[in-house]
Amino acid sequence: MSPQIRKLFSLCDVKYGWVLLGSSALFGISNYFDQTYINDPIWVHISYWFSFAIAVLWGVLNYISHVRLNSMYKKQNDIQKYVNQLAMSEEDKLELQTYLEDYVQDLIQQGKTEDEAAREAINQFKVKEFLSLSKNTMFFNLSAHYYLIGWTTITVISIILAWLLETALFPDSLVIEAVENVLAAYSIGLLGMFFLYKLIDAAIYQKFKEVFE
């Protein structure tokens, strides 16, 4: 499997997934009643907006959690954490970790502390080849967010499957239509969030570049 595919389907990179799940469930319920009533009551509209607000909250929490994780990685003095964040096969990760740990032991024998040796070993091997495999961007090692495209792909496939199910077995099912609408809305939202995250990454990177250059 190529590193690009691993990045796309690093699905566990989503943080606070229960918040997003709650938002989508509320949106689905709202959409179901939206189709049921001829004249939508005010609470349906409020429920839509509330589900949207929860989704926005999730977007903020998810982004902040990745910033926090990557600030931990920036210390770069933990071999295992450094290796685990790379989009490599488990075999390659094990080989790299063993190599770096052996290098650390050599540095310790030369008089360095364990933290100093680990930091130097990581810095020595944090070259373009490894960074290109990393799930982090060059914008101060923030997450590349490609998992959002992976989730978008999954939701689009789910829409197709739900439509086939509705067509074959449950024509005009309001429940399936609500599910389809939820998947469609959140697939667009996830894809939009990917581009928004990338814009934020670029803005933050540019700001720090202006400050420190």
Q: Can you give a write-up of this model?
A:
The chain starts with a helix and ends with a helix. It has 9 helices and no strands. It is elongated, with a radius of gyration of 22 Å. Helix content is 76%, strand content 0%. It is an all-alpha fold and 213 residues long.
Structural key phrases:
213 residues; mainly alpha; 9 helices; elongated
Précis, in short:
This protein is an all-alpha fold. It has helices at 3-8, 17-36, 42-73, 79-84, 90-109, 114-125, 128-131, 147-168, 174-212. α2 (17-36) runs antiparallel to α3 (42-73), α2 (17-36) packs across α9 and α5 (90-109) crosses α6.
List the helices and strands and how they pair.
Layout lengths: L2 H6 L8 H20 L5 H32 L5 H6 L5 H20 L4 H12 L2 H4 L15 H22 L5 H39 L1
Q: Write down the overall mean pLDDT.
A: 80
Category by helix and strand content? mainly alpha
Multimeric status of the protein: single chain
How many strands in all? 0
How would you spell out the order of helices and strands? HHHHHHHHH
| Structural Rg | 22 Å
| DSSP summary: helix tally | 9
Q: Report the biggest beta sheet as strand number plus sense, adding barrel if it closes.
A: none
Distance between the termini: 39 Å
Q: What proportion of the residues form beta strands (DSSP E)?
A: under 5%
- What helical percentage do the residues reach? over 70%
